[in-house]
Specification:
The longest helix has 22 residues, at 37-58. The chain has 3 helices and no strands. The chain is an all-alpha fold and 91 residues long. It is 68% helix and 0% strand.
């Protein structure tokens, strides 16, 4: 098992990155989404982690641009959220 040394500063960075990535994804996805800022941040944090890991696995020599993978994953997560959990699109 790998022990991760995560501090308060790391958590703050993930929350800020999650907010930015989630907000960018919501801007990219057309239409209005009825998700709050907490869901936006949570989806952004998940996308930052998953997208960063996937991007680095696919393109290991491209350091510093894993945020592209994070935004792609965030857009997918917003689309999934809208499809399954958005109450305003259901009739």
């Amino acid at each position: 098992m790998i022990a991760a040394d995560i501090g308060v500063g790391d958590i703050i960075v993930y929350v800020i990155a999650g907010a930015i990535i989630g907000a960018l994804a919501r801007l990219i996805v057309p239409g209005k989404q009825s998700m709050g800022w907490v869901i936006t941040i949570v989806l952004g944090i998940i996308a930052a982690i998953v997208g960063g890991i996937l991007w680095n696995a696919l393109f290991p020599s491209n350091d510093g641009i894993a945020w592209i993978g994070s935004i792609i994953v965030a857009v997918i997560l917003v689309l999934v959220y809208v499809k399954f959990f958005d109450r305003t699109t259901r009739t």
